[in-house]
Amino acid sequence: MKTLIQRTKRLLFRCSIVATALAASALLADDAESLSGKWSVNKANAQGEKYTQTLEIKKDKFIFQIQGDDGNVRLHAEGDVKFEKLGPFNSAHFFHIRGGQSPSDLNDVDEERTVIYTLDEDTWNVASNFERERNQKPSADVYHRVKATTQAGTLVIDEIEMADTPQVATWYVCFEANTDEAKGRHYVANKGYEKNQVTIPVGLELTKAKAGQKCSFRLPLDDVDDDACGDEPDNRSTGQFTVSEKGSETYKPEEKWRYTIRWHLK
After folding, report:
1. Can you list the domains of the chain with their CATH numbers?
2. Which of 10, 54, 72, 102 could form a disulfide with 248 if both were Cys (CB 3.0 to 4.6 A apart)?
3. CA–CA distance, 214 with 236 (Å, rounded to integer)
């Protein structure tokens, strides 16, 4: 009889452990769903320069960005995220990280990050850089959920800053962009460029655009004007960016080709 009671107690103890583990997993799964979307916090560095950090969660993936006060992307990182329980704390473990100055120029990051957090509907309190020593100081940030806007506006692609090109003589450019609802082309006949570090005014407008929407583009270069918009240009770059109120992204499609696209919504 005594042995039976002891076995029953052990069985109940094991069941309680399993139930607790399942409950914790369910809570973390709920957090992953609740955190889905884009979060933002405004900060300032030691010199008083303002910048914005955004963290976007899509199931088990994340996208992290730092944007300057001018809307330009200064840092982009992405990878996998797993929500775990660390003792009494909720944690987010970021791994398989790739980072760089833009989504098109990413390198593997040989480091993983773990943050502790609390979640209260549209407020996400995050404590970071506490798990190990780094150049960055430990911080406690209050992220707020970025509300998705349903109001459509006009996407204006303002300019392309060509920092470097693979062309060695006079070159011509043809820029095409499209969203789900609109498409357009910027091309000026007989308008050639003869050097790097030049800013091309574009002013291309795409209607019915929304923040969070993807914009795809095609950017060919050629040393013959008539071939710039053709099917076989000397150089061709394709890509996309996420529409926002104001922003920019830098691309590096080839070793000697780097450019930045700037845009805004109106």
Report:
1. 34-145 (2.40.128), 153-265 (2.60.40.150)
2. 72
3. 20
| H or E stretch at 19 | helix 2-34
What's the pTM?
0.58
Contact status, residue 155 vs residue 215, Cβ threshold 8 Å: yes
The CA-CA-CA angle for residues 29, 34, 35, to 5°, reads: 100
How far apart CA 92 and CA 113 sit, in angstroms, is 8
* Ranges assigned E (strand) in the chain: 37-44, 50-58, 61-68, 73-86, 89-102, 105-108, 113-120, 123-128, 139-145, 153-164, 172-173, 175-178, 183-186, 198-209, 214-222, 235-242, 246-254, 257-265
Rounded to an integer, what distance in angstroms lies between the CA atom of residue 263 and that of residue 71? Answer: 9
The pLDDT tens digits of the residues spanning 82-99 come to: 998 888 889 999 999 999
- d(CA 49, CA 51) in angstroms, rounded, equals 7
- Whole-number CA gyration radius for the chain: 24
Q: Work out the end-to-end distance of the chain between its first and last CA atoms, rounded to an integer number of angstroms.
A: 79
Say what the pLDDT of residue 63 is: 92
